[in-house]
Specification:
Blueprint: E1 4-9, H1 13-24, E2 29-35, H2 38-45, E3 52-56, H3 64-74, E4 79-84, H4 89-98, E5 102-105, H5 109-121, E6 126-127, H6 132-139, H7 150-160, H8 165-172, H9 176-190, H10 195-205
Parallel strand pairs: 1-2, 1-3, 3-4, 4-5, 5-6
Helix pairs in contact: 2-3, 3-4, 7-9, 7-10, 8-9
Length: about 210
């Protein structure tokens, strides 16, 4: 049987090792590459064309959701399983809009990972049992939506990671002026008064994490 190939993308090497161990216990699953951030993942995919990418939602340099969107645009045949520590309706909705094939909450990974991979491999969609409340909220239109646009979320994340306006402009291939304009829009929409407030908001929303 031809192995089902997988690329792992998470900034925590220990978590990648744990996921790899679970996967490699299955004889017909094979990890063919690993990446520590979203930009590294996109470069890796130029060389590797796996069947599935298991992707952390909170990645350095490029949000996991944005990386997922780029994967689906450039490599529509590659399946994407988002791995997250967050149980938030906004992430679920944004992931579905990006076309991902599943969501696995990290605390479910030891018991649900193989089931998630096999479900997606067979053409299905997988959602962690812990996300049942979020799914219900989406079905009935409940819950508060994130007021920021996709680009604003990305910039808020990079600001929270300590990137300067110039570094953000370089990473996103936009001008410093555009970065400043997005930053001003973020603060206006959220009624924030300082960069520290933007960082706090990004952390609270799970765009990034303190230890990532």
């Amino acid at each position: 049987m031809t192995p089902y190939t997988i690329v792992l993308a998470d900034d925590h090497a220990m978590l990648r090792r744990g996921v790899r161990k679970i996967i490699e216990e299955m004889g017909d699953l094979r990890v063919v590459g690993e990446a520590g951030d979203g930009l590294e993942l996109l470069e890796l995919l130029k060389q590797k064309r796996p069947d599935l990418v298991i992707l952390d939602i909170s990645m350095p340099n490029l949000l996991g959701l944005e990386a997922a969107r780029k994967i689906k645009e450039s490599y529509p045949g590659i399946k994407v399983l988002l791995l997250t520590m967050h149980k938030k309706k906004d992430f679920l909705q944004q992931g579905l809009e990006a076309g991902v094939d599943g969501f696995l909450v990290k605390e479910d990974a030891d018991t649900e990972l193989v089931k998630a991979v096999q479900t997606i491999r067979q053409g299905g969609k997988f959602f962690s049992p812990l996300l049942s409340g979020c799914l219900a909220d989406l079905a009935f239109g409940k819950g508060k939506s994130d007021p920021l646009s996709r680009r604003e979320r990305e910039i808020a994340k990079l600001l929270a990671e300590g990137k300067s306006n110039k570094e953000i402009a370089s990473l996103l291939c936009i001008s410093v002026y555009t970065v400043r304009r997005h930053r001003d829009n973020i603060m206006r929409k959220l009624h924030l008064k300082s960069l520290a407030d933007v960082v706090r908001y990004a952390l609270e929303q799970g765009y990034t994490s303190v230890d990532s």
